[in-house]
Amino acid sequence: MRNAPRDHNAPDALALQIAELNYALSCHIPAMKRRVRIYTGYGSVEFYGTQARRIAAMCEGILQRRLQRLERQSGLPR
After folding, report:
1. Which of 24, 40, 62, 72 maximizes the CB count within 10 A of its CB?
2. DSSP 10
């Protein structure tokens, strides 16, 4: 018997997504404040200093909003 496809918004999937976002916010964002490398189909481009901090701040806002949305969906305490 095959397992039914898993709902991507199932409680365990939401908990995993929340954990991944918390990890990104605590590890990736601080590192991005020093250096950001963006990969494209044509190669990569790097940003340092003020530009890296601005990109990190923008990404942090995006991840925070995504985290808040998932926390509301999950009903887990913040």
Report:
1. 24
2. S
**Number of folded domains in the chain?**
1
Residue type, 52: A
- Decide if 39 is inside a domain: yes
Amino acid at 37: R
- Domain assignment of residue 4, yes or no: no
Beta strands in 28-67 (DSSP E): 35-40, 43-48
Domain that holds residue 34: 11-74
- pLDDT score, position 61: 98
* Cα angle, residue 35 at apex, residues 65 and 31 outer, rounded to 5°: 55
**Alpha-carbon span 40 to 59, nearest angstrom:** 17
> What is the CA 49 to chain-centroid distance, rounded?
21
